[in-house]
Amino acid sequence: MKLPPCSRQPLCTRNDVENEFNTLFSAAWSLHQDGATGILPGKAIPLYGSKIAAMETFSRLMWGIFSQLACPDSPSLPVAPLFRLIADGTNPKHPNYWGTPGDFDQRCVEMAVYGVGLALAAQQFRAHLSHEEFANLVSWLKHIRRVKLPQNNWSFFPIMVESGLCIAGENWQPDTIAHHFSLLDEYYLGDGWYSDGKGRPRDYYNAMALHYYGLVYAQLMGQRDPERSRILRERATLFAHDFIHMFADDGSAIPFGRSLTYRFAQSAFWSAVAFSALPVFPAGVVKGLILRNINWWRQQEFTDSRGIMNVGYAYDNNGISEDYNAPGSSYWACKTFLILALDKQSVFWKSAALPLPTSTAQHEFAHAGQIVHHDTRNQHHYLLNAGQFPAKNYNNSESKYAKFAYSSLLGFNLERCRYGIEMNACDSMLLFSEHDDYFRGRRINQYSEVSNRYIHCRWQPQSGISVQTWFVPLSSGHFRLHIIENDRNINTVEGGFPIPVFTTETAVPGEKKNDIIDTQENIFSLIEDLSPALTRTAEIVVSPPASNIIFPCSSGVPTLQQALEPGKHLFACLVRAGRGTPGESDVSVDIDPQQRYFTIQDEGTSLTISLTPKSER
Fold first, then answer.
1. What radius of gyration do the chain's Cα atoms show?
2. Is residue 579 predicted with pLDDT exceeding 90?
3. Is 425 within 8 Å of 444 (Cβ atoms)?
4. Which of 49, 276, 472, 594 stands 20 to 30 A from 213 (CA)?
């Protein structure tokens, strides 16, 4: 089965997007072997095994196929082999049967697309499957009713299955849907935000899972369940007004949290907005956002020479993968192709792609503990992060959740090991060592406070060292202040944003310099010490290739380093990065000698922040 190839020109029309998906699909399908019930593009297999990993690849590609089948504008697709694979995979008598799902089973995740597929293309299922084969599929899907699931976004998988069964005219269980929505309501924090389970992170799973499935449900089941659909649409509307700030003008999005290998699933939420006709922004704004995001990704190396999606972020890099990522996991990006369910005469496709709405310089995500900073002076789009940490210890969790800042332009670095500062992903971090070159930074907070003007958090990297940190976004860059109390001698390293380093002409490791200017990419990174009672040493730290998630070359980080004796100490610095060169800063900072407050003067405005904990005021 081979679908038409795509052009390398920027995607503009529905045909362009359809051809882009078809190209991705054709490359993956070329690996399919006769009689197999999946596609396995690689050998790095998680614990759930190769058969389920192959089923996962195929199933995630079907998000794009079912979306096309729902639209009369799509050309007639040669889908008979695909439905044959589904029939064999759900046939208990077939040697390559997908198997009966158990508790906490990856197969339950992939069931969601077949529930949505039944809702979008039930006639196609019945046309290509015999009565017995269709009954096998329905029976296989119903196994999700009898298994235990993680208490997080997984509750939407049985909801999608039951919705599909309902719309396809099969026996379905409204009580199952009600039960899982009651669980999801427990994770709702307000203002459009969920946590991904009680006390869990607030990351892209809000967009690409919780709200995505919620809007799909609201569109498919709106007449049968109007009240729940109204709630889901209201929550998604609130969330959209925050989430739009995660995207830069060039289509890139701020990378943060786990499962970043799903690539343009970053914009899947907006496809669900379009699919459900949610009137939160003009259709042209939503269209422009989705197309720019996919086009940004098309400039990255997210496929190999075969056209197969790799595991990584902007290039093939297993350092960013999760322990649940199989070789085909990245195809969950295909959820964004839900816009192919809309015909050419829809408002979405008839609208001209529009730029992002004008936004304020800072936007607070109160429930995520973040401030997005649109630094127009430095053309730098990033967020300041109070700090999160997942209940499960995912790969590189501190790098993905606990850094001080995350940038759509510069990405972030991944930790290689705890020994040696070059391996430690010191960008946007304050790290501590007991003079032994083993470094530790922030993992979790003991306390955090977020407003639209600043972030304050208290954390303890290890026993005997406590830190209070403030971040303040400025007209150019941001200001950091740390109060450190330590009971023994330590070394400290604080890093600015990472920057690609191609040769030693760009940055020499250990060179005493507080900025890096990359003239090839026309970007810079700077950290300037403003500590009142000491002067930290400026050093360039260069990490190995593939440390950064966007730039595959070596990565340079300007740092400030200082040895501390036991006591109480105050660090302060100005951090800037972006396009062009640093230029001069007109920011002035006055720090009270008694460490009771500090005042920042920035472009004619003044901000005073207390350094006294709320409990002591």
1. 25
2. yes
3. no
4. 49
Q: How far apart are the first and last CA of the chain?
A: 70
Task: Give every CB contact of residue 206 below 8 A, 6+ residues apart in sequence.
Answer: 193, 194, 196, 239, 243
Q: Determine the residue type at 361.
A: A
CA proximity to 497, closest of 427, 404, 555: 427
User: Taking residues 323-342, what's their average pLDDT?
Assistant: 97
- pLDDT-derived band at 8 (thresholds 50, 70, 90) equals low
Q: Residues 559, 426: contact at Cβ < 8 Å?
A: yes
Average pLDDT of the chain, as a whole number: 94
Distance CA 193, CA 191 (A): 6
Give the rounded distance of the alpha carbon of 26 from its chain centre.
26
What confidence score (pLDDT) does residue 5 get? 47
Parallel, antiparallel, or unpaired: how do β-strands 430-433 and 405-407 relate?
A: unpaired
Question: Token pair for residue 309?
Answer: 């999606």
**What is the DSSP-derived secondary structure letter of residue 115?**
H
- Say yes or no to pLDDT of 616 above 60: no
Round to whole Å and give the CA distance between 311 and 304.
10
Q: What is the pTM of this model?
A: 0.95
pLDDT average, residue stretch 427-452: 94
pLDDT of residue 359: 86
Q: What residues does 478 pair with on adjacent strands?
A: 473, 575
pLDDT in tens, 267-309: 999 999 999 999 999 999 999 999 999 999 999 999 999 999 9
Beta carbons within 8 Å of 179's beta carbon, 6+ residues apart: none
In 305-341, which positions are buried (b, 16+ CB within 10 angstroms) versus exposed (e)?
eeebbbbbbbeebebbbbebbbbbbbbbbbbbbbbbb
In terms of Cβ atoms closer than 10 Å to its own Cβ (0-12, 13-18, 19+), residue 429 is buried
In whole angstroms, give the CA distance from residue 316 to residue 303: 8
Compute CA distances 2 → 27, 196, 211, 453, whole Å.
8, 38, 33, 53
Task: Please enumerate in sequence order all residues whose Cβ is within 8 A of that of 482, keeping only pairs 6 or more positions apart, or say none.
Answer: 430, 467, 468, 469, 470, 494, 570, 571, 572
Strands (DSSP E) found in 317-399: 362-365, 370-375, 380-385
* pLDDT over threshold 60, residue 98: yes
Q: Does the pLDDT at position 613 exceed 80?
A: no
Q: How confident is the model at residue 511 (pLDDT cuts 50, 70, 90)?
A: confident
pLDDT digits (tens, 9 = 90+) for 386-397: 999 877 788 899
Tokens of 146: 């009898």
- Count the Cβ atoms, other than its own, within 10 Å of residue 605: 9
- Strand, coil or helix: 264: helix
Q: Percent of the chain having pLDDT more than 90?
A: 89
With left for phi above 0 and alpha for psi between -120 and 50, is residue 281 left, alpha or beta?
Answer: beta
**Residue entry with tokens 């400030």:** 560
Stretch (H or E) spanning 159:
helix 156-167
**Number of Cα atoms under 13 Å in the Cβ half of residue 214:** 31
Query: Identity (one letter) of the amino acid at 123?
Result: Q
* Mean pLDDT of all residues in 224-247: 98
Widest distance between CA atoms in the chain: 81
pLDDT band at 4 (very low <50, low <70, confident <90, very high): very low
Encode 446-462: b = buried (16+ Cβ within 10 Å), e = exposed. eebebeeebbbbebebe
